[in-house]
Design a protein that fits this description.
It is a single chain. This protein has two domains: 4-58; 67-183, no CATH class. Helices cover 42% and strands 7% of the residues. The protein has helices at 11-27, 32-43, 49-58, 67-84, 99-109, 113-118, 172-175, and strands at 89-92, 95-96, 127-130, 154-156. The protein is elongated, with a radius of gyration of 18 Å. Strands 2-1-3-4 form a four-stranded antiparallel beta sheet, covered by helices on one side. The protein has 187 residues and is α+β, with helices and mostly antiparallel strands. Residues 136-187 have a biased composition (Low complexity).
């Protein structure tokens, strides 16, 4: 019953599914196999895992953080904390990076602040760092908003201007999502 034409989709067909896929894969943080199943069974959109992986790369939706990206974020975080006394929230391609990922990397590698500051890792232009609003960095209250115009100061390396952190290329349902407090880095 499966025909190869079931898996052939135009760019327009993929773009029509982008919001749904992004919602399940990024916002709800479901694994690819589960999103693939939802897309097929609920919405009738059939594609291979390889096709989805190509779209993930094309749409910059990769969930994995590269070693060089992690080093750049950690160095900037320590630098901001030591020089300016500021906490930091990081975004990669507009998506928040959970504090636990940063902490887990430091624990796994057994790093000290001196180790981190010894790195000369440039911050790519698609990584954004912001100061959380007052009361959210230390308290880490649930329901705090992690993106959008309510954020405090912003710093960015590598490109001029403010990087868009609100998924504005997607419909408003994804741009108003409130990120849980675990996305606020605290060390």
């Amino acid at each position: 019953m499966s025909q190869s034409s079931d898996f052939d989709h135009s760019t327009e067909e993929w773009e029509a599914q982008r919001e749904l896929f992004t919602h399940y894969y990024v916002i709800e943080d479901k694994p690819l196999w589960e999103v693939k199943s939802i897309m097929e069974n609920t919405y009738g959109f059939r594609a291979t895992e390889r096709q989805y992986k190509r779209r993930i790369a094309l749409w910059n939706l990769d969930k994995n953080i590269r070693d060089s990206e992690m080093k750049a974020m950690l160095r900037l975080q320590v630098q901001r904390k030591n020089e300016q006394g500021k906490q930091s929230i990081f975004y990669i391609h507009g998506r928040p990076v959970e504090n636990k990922k940063l902490e887990r990397y430091v624990r796994r590698k057994g790093l000290s602040e001196a180790d981190i500051m010894a790195w000369n890792a440039p911050v790519p232009p698609y990584i954004t760092c912001q100061t959380p609003p007052p009361g959210t960095a230390g308290a880490q209250t649930a329901g705090s908003q992690g993106a959008g115009s309510q954020m405090g100061e912003s710093s960015q390396s590598g490109a001029a201007g403010q990087y868009n952190t609100s998924f504005s290329s997607y419909p408003s349902s994804t741009s108003t999502y409130r990120y849980p407090s675990q996305y606020y880095p605290s060390f």
